[in-house]
Amino acid sequence: MILFDVGGTLFDDGPCIPIDGLSRLRLAAKNPEVTDDKALALLWDEYMNEISGLKSKSGVSLDMPLSAAIKYLTMKTGLRFDISTPEQEEIFDRYNSTRKVIDGIPELLDTLHSLSIRTALISNNAMSGEGLANAVKRWIPNGRFEFFLTSADILYCKPCKDIFLSALGYAGLEPNDCWYCGDGFVPDIIGSSGVGMTPVLINTKSETDLEINQVNDKEYIAVNNWYALRDYILKITE
Fold first, then answer.
1. Is the dihedral of CA 180, 53, 204, 13 positive or negative?
2. For the chain, what are the domain ranges?
3. How would you class 169 by CB atoms within 10 Å of its CB: exposed for 0-12, middle for 13-18, buried for 19 or more?
4. Which CATH fold topology does 2-13+100-236 show?
5. Is 38 helix (H, G, I), strand (E, B) or coil?
6. What is the full per-residue pLDDT of the chain (238 aa) written as tens digits?
């Protein structure tokens, strides 16, 4: 199985502008007139300032689920919806930034599917796995990911080993059966190698298409584009 990060790996997102997502979320309510965008943005900022920096007793960073923030804002302002919470998450996510699929991702995923290599997602993301699934399927409808695991689902954030081990347990695989692709050296490369997965680092600023490096006494693959990884996989699976 090859597992993927989301932001910076599947998608290139611009800066997050919460008020834009909140505005669209308000308009999706049955009664958008009960509040306004300014009031929602003020509540958002107050809430985020209050709950930022959450950690476990052992010092692991924790993610506050977006569903909790949405529930707090919408109930406090009296907004009511006919759509599910994951659908509300997806609306907020869709409109709070610009987004494009990173070049080579559709082709890489199609190749993995043709080779019967399973795929899934692990992301440090405030969205639930269900909300993230809705978002990813909108942009990559033929992704064929088996499951979507986010830090909001289990609170633990990468590079904590527990989020990777949870995915392995659900997939029914051993670490050496899995690669993990991401754009962050500490959360993705250090995190996945720490449980025995083979890490793949995407760095579009690198001058080298593909090279093999070392981390934690383990090899990891570094690429500057996803076409290079697809070609490498095709070569080693011939």
1. positive
2. 2-13+100-236, 18-95
3. exposed
4. Rossmann fold (3.40.50)
5. helix
6. 999 999 999 999 999 999 999 999 999 999 999 999 999 999 999 999 998 889 999 999 999 999 999 999 999 999 999 999 999 999 999 999 999 999 999 999 999 999 999 999 999 999 999 999 999 999 999 999 999 999 999 999 999 999 999 999 999 999 999 999 999 999 999 999 999 999 999 999 999 999 999 987 889 999 999 999 999 999 999 8
